[in-house]
UniProtKB/TrEMBL annotation:
Protein name from the UniProt record: Uncharacterized protein
Organism domain of life: Eukaryota
Length: 246
């Protein structure tokens, strides 16, 4: 859609991209000097989610209503006002023209409505274990077949996380307390720690609300004891039990 709304893209999206690049470059400069922002191998750690979120909030705070209105005005779009099609950005003007050639227009923007050829996953019992508790679903999946009580497992895993140098600086005491008391939703950090602690390869398939595959990622270790297959939708996890080694 950046062709149709190109002025809006320039005024808003690119402004954010430039701001993000500046903040990331500044972070990278610090990370190359600060051991706390480096992995055990000496590489710069990725910025924490909270850090990136704060960059976004800072950028939003730098924008006022006038700048947003101006971005839409550049496209010829003014809220609740009549407009002259001659004043519109050319791609929009072509679309709204009385003699628009829809066949030609569809050819130009065919890529915006491509067929969805993503894999459809069948996530259902008995092949998949579907925990009832959404917030703790990841832990219940990791626990499947182990027999350890949930609170003991969470305590063991979080204590182990605090010893992993690769996770240094990626969480604070408040986050850890939230994981332990069930008010914070576990995710990538806990998956990485579980893979290291158990010596498992953990394959995570992320799906959308219709169970269409969005992405796949594997947490791997040397001499893996077994492979655990998880599926994730938002913060909810399920584990494949068909062939799961208990």
């Amino acid at each position: 859609m950046t062709n149709i709304l190109q002025p809006l893209d320039v005024a808003v999206n690119r402004s954010y991209q430039e701001y993000y690049r500046d903040q990331y470059d500044e972070y990278l400069g610090k990370a190359l000097k600060d051991p706390l922002l480096q992995t055990k191998a000496g590489n710069a750690k990725v910025p924490r989610y909270a850090t990136v979120a704060q960059w976004t909030l800072d950028w939003v705070a730098s924008k006022d209503s006038a700048s947003i209105k101006r971005a839409f005005t550049l496209c010829g779009l003014v809220s609740k006002q009549e407009f002259d099609t001659d004043d519109l950005h050319p791609p929009l003007r072509e679309l709204l023209a009385a003699d628009v050639d829809m066949e030609l227009w569809n050819q130009q923007y065919r890529n915006l409505a491509g067929t969805d050829d993503r894999d459809q996953l069948d996530i259902s019992a008995p092949r998949w274990y579907l925990p009832d508790d959404r917030v703790s679903s990841l832990f219940y999946c990791l626990l499947h077949g182990i027999g350890t009580p949930l609170n003991e497992y969470v305590a063991e895993l979080t204590s182990y996380m605090e010893t992993l140098r690769d996770l240094d600086g990626l969480f604070d005491a408040g986050y850890m307390a939230g994981i332990r008391d069930g008010t914070e939703e576990p995710g990538e950090l806990e998956l990485y720690a579980a893979s290291q602690m158990h010596r498992w390869t953990i394959e995570v398939s992320t799906v959308d609300t219709t169970n269409k595959l969005v992405s796949k990622f594997s947490y791997t270790v040397d001499d893996s004891a077994k492979t655990v297959c998880l599926v994730r939708s938002g913060s909810y996890f399920a584990v494949k039990v068909d062939g799961y080694a208990i």
